[in-house]
């Protein structure tokens, strides 16, 4: 178990927070009730912006003093100029995006660095369920029935690495982690992560030769 | 805006308030208006709530909409049964907490509730201005409010808010006196009137102008154009509600019984409601003022400031932290107009939050008790105050 200042925050968010330089400019896409942004604002003095589509969550964020815009992440990113932010964070939302490629490109445009995390569909428990029960997998990380799931783009860690090669962005950091059921604690998985990690977290950027294109 | 004047069910009240008057721009130092004409002396009626702190850092300005006044909250006397128009929002422990903040609300220039307007006496003529009153704009209203701030010795405003035409004043302040405004909450408003909004205002104005009593604005010694003004108010009320609000409030219900009376007496509840609103309005509002103030709202266009071209340019010198709020059922200032405003603010790198509140009551939603709105406003203002 790895220790962090804020033990109440979800383990994957703790890892993301540890990657952010203090005093930087951050936008969180699909920021929920602003748990990570509030932590970054208070502990790392970042200038924060959040984008969230659900009114009650937006209200919760603003009431905490966070700067948050209610809207669709795919549309909102279009309004920002190139390299407006030091970090663009898409935490556990990639699997719910209709056009992940377009969104990743927009994120790489508006941010110098991008942090993306997602539940790993290559995890052994997912494979096990499909193989032995024949049912669409339901896991603590992907807890929905097939007919109600918002997760329309399930992917594995191996898929994301392949995606990086094909799209042509650099992976600066990778954290493949295994978490407990509540996601409060966890540990890094370096051996066979695609089979054993529940989440993949990536720090990515445009390749230098693609900058300005 | 409609009148929803009733006591806050919570029982909390800002308490006793009084209307104050400030007069400035005495000749020969008249105020120069956007139109180029000079106006003076100018009196501004205003009310304050709460206590100004020692370093004058807890000032909140509230701006009223088209037909509101300086009486934002509280009561004038112990047996006054009509609290101010935003009593549910402004008071101790409320969205705008008068235990913490010093709230100022003034009547707009061109209005008729204590500030100088077309019903005021023109000193040069010794009788009401009528149509000799110069056209005033939202920027002129803001100039007059700035003069009041100077008089009160207030240099920085912690937060300002207002809905509808009050929101226009918020936006205008932010570009006209950007260094004075720390944060701003435009509610249910727009950077410029749509053709639809201008059209409704024009029909309302024509109702007044078509009333023979209006007499080119010279009616102060005779019968007033009450018929025209009440029709104007009825039109306004239609735009402040929504299809859904009207359906749930009135439906097709009749005032009496089940059967049609086959005449024009106004038997549908919605007819009766509009007539009632019209009749009540003429008791307190001046028809010429209605013409001037609606025209000021129609002229308002933040994208035309300083001959600039786009909404993004309009906010180029703004510096405030913004929270923009719209309401789902508002078809007078629909959410897309707030989104355009937010987009322009984003393009200028401004710190802007935006929330679209689900509400069925149409444009009037910003005036009605709404826990979500109160929580947003208090949380936002508190966070600005804590950062000082």
Uncertain regions of chain A: pLDDT < 50 for 5+ in a row? none
The strand line-up of the biggest sheet of chain A is: 3-2-1-4-5-8-6-7
Distance between the termini of chain A: 42 Å
Quickly count the helices of chain B: 10
Strand order of the largest sheet of chain B: 1-4-8-5-11-12-13-14
CATH class type of chain A: Alpha Beta
Which percent bin holds the helix content of chain A? 25-40%
Most residues in contact, chain pair and counts: A-B, 19 and 25 residues
- Mean pLDDT rating of chain A: 93
The quaternary organization reads as: heterodimer
Category by helix and strand content of chain B: alpha/beta
| CATH topology title of chain A | Rossmann fold
Q: Any idea what the radius of gyration of chain B is?
A: 20 Å
Distance between the termini of chain B: 33 Å
What percent of residues of chain A are in strands? 15-25%
Q: What low-confidence regions of chain B span 5 or more consecutive residues with pLDDT below 50?
A: none
The CATH architecture of the domain at 20-193 and 302-386 in chain B comes to 3-Layer(aba) Sandwich
What is the SS-derived class of chain A? alpha/beta
Number of strands of chain A: 8
Could you tell me the CATH topology label of the domain at 20-193 and 302-386 in chain B.
Answer: Rossmann fold
Instruction: Assign a percent range to the helix content of chain B.
Output: 25-40%
How would you portray this structure in words?
The complex is a heterodimer of chains A (213) and B (388). Chain A is of the alpha/beta class and 213 residues long. Chain A has one domain: Vaccinia Virus protein VP39 (Rossmann fold, 3-Layer(aba) Sandwich), CATH 3.40.50. Chain A has helices spanning 11-19, 35-44, 55-63, 73-76, 100-110, 124-133, 157-167, 193-196; strands at 25-29, 47-52, 68-70, 85-91, 111-119, 169-179, 186-188, 199-206. The longest helix of chain A has 11 residues, at 100-110. Chain B has a domain at 20-193 and 302-386: Alpha/Beta hydrolase fold, catalytic domain (Rossmann fold, 3-Layer(aba) Sandwich), CATH 3.40.50. Helices cover 32% and strands 15% of the residues of chain B. In chain B, the strands form four sheets. Chain B has an eight-stranded mixed sheet, with helices on both faces. In chain B, strands 2-3 form a two-stranded antiparallel ribbon. In chain B, strands 6-7 form a two-stranded parallel ribbon. In chain B, β11 (159-163), α2 and β12 form a beta-alpha-beta unit. The interface between A and B is medium-sized, with 19 and 25 residues.
């Amino acid at each position: 178990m790895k220790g962090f200042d804020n033990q109440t925050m979800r383990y994957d968010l703790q890892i993301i927070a540890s990657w952010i330089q203090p005093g930087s400019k951050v936008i969180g896409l699909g920021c929920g009730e602003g748990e990570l942004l509030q932590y970054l604002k208070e502990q790392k003095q970042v200038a924060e912006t959040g984008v969230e589509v659900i009114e009650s969550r937006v209200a919760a964020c603003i009431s905490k003093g966070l700067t948050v815009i209610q809207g669709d992440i795919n549309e909102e990113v279009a309004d920002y100029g190139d390299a407006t932010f030091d970090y663009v964070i898409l935490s556990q939302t990639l699997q719910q995006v209709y056009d992940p490629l377009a969104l990743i490109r927009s994120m790489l445009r508006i941010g110098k660095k991008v942090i993306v995390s997602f539940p790993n569909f290559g995890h052994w428990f997912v494979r096990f369920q499909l193989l032995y029960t024949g049912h669409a997998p339901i896991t603590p990380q992907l807890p929905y029935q097939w007919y109600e799931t918002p997760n329309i783009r399930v992917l594995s860690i191996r898929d994301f690495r392949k995606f990086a090669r094909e799209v042509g962005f650099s992976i600066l950091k990778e954290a493949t982690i295994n978490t407990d059921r509540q996601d409060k604690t966890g540990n890094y998985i370096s051996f066979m992560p695609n089979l054993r990690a529940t989440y993949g977290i990536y720090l990515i950027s445009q390749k230098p030769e693609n900058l300005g294109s | 805006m409609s009148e929803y004047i009733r006591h806050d069910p919570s029982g909390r009240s800002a308490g006793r308030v009084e209307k104050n008057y400030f007069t400035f721009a005495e000749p020969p130092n008249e105020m120069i208006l956007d139109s180029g004409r000079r106006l003076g002396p100018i009196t501004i009626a205003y009310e304050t709530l709460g206590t100004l702190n020692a370093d004058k850092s807890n000032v909140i300005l509230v701006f009223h909409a088209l037909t509101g006044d300086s009486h934002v909250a509280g009561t004038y006397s112990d047996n006054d049964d009509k609290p101010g128009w935003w009593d549910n929002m402004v008071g101790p422990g409320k969205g705008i907490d008068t235990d913490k903040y010093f709230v100022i609300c003034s009547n707009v220039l061109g209005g008729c509730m204590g500030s100088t307007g077309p019903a005021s006496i023109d000193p040069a003529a010794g009788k009401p201005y009528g149509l000799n009153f110069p056209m005033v704009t939202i920027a002129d209203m803001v100039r007059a409010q700035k003069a009041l701030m100077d008089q009160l010795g207030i240099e920085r405003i912690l937060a300002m808010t207002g809905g509808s035409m009050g929101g226009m004043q918020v936006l205008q302040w932010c570009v006209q006196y950007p260094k004075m405004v720390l944060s701003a909450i435009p509610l249910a408003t727009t950077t410029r009137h749509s053709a639809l909004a201008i059209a409704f205002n024009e029909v309302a104005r024509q109702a007044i102008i078509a009333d023979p009593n209006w007499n080119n604005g010279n009616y102060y010694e005779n019968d007033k154009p009450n018929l025209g003004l009440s029709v104007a108010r009825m039109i306004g009320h239609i735009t402040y509600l929504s299809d859904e609000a009207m359906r749930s409030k009135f439906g097709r219900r009749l005032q009496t019984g089940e059967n049609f009376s086959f005449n024009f007496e106004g038997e549908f509840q919605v007819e009766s409601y509009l007539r009632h609103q019209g009749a009540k309005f003429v008791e307190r509002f001046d028809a010429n003022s209605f013409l001037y103030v609606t025209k000021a709202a129609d002229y308002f266009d933040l994208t035309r400031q300083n001959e600039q071209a786009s909404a993004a340019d309009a906010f180029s010198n703004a510096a405030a932290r913004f929270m923009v709020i719209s309401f789902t059922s508002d078809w007078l200032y629909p959410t897309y107009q707030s989104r355009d405003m937010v987009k322009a603010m984003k393009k200028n790198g401004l710190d802007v939050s935006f929330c679209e509140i689900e509400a069925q009551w149409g444009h009037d939603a910003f005036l009605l008790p709404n826990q979500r709105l109160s929580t947003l406003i208090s949380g936002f203002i508190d966070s600005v105050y804590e950062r000082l």
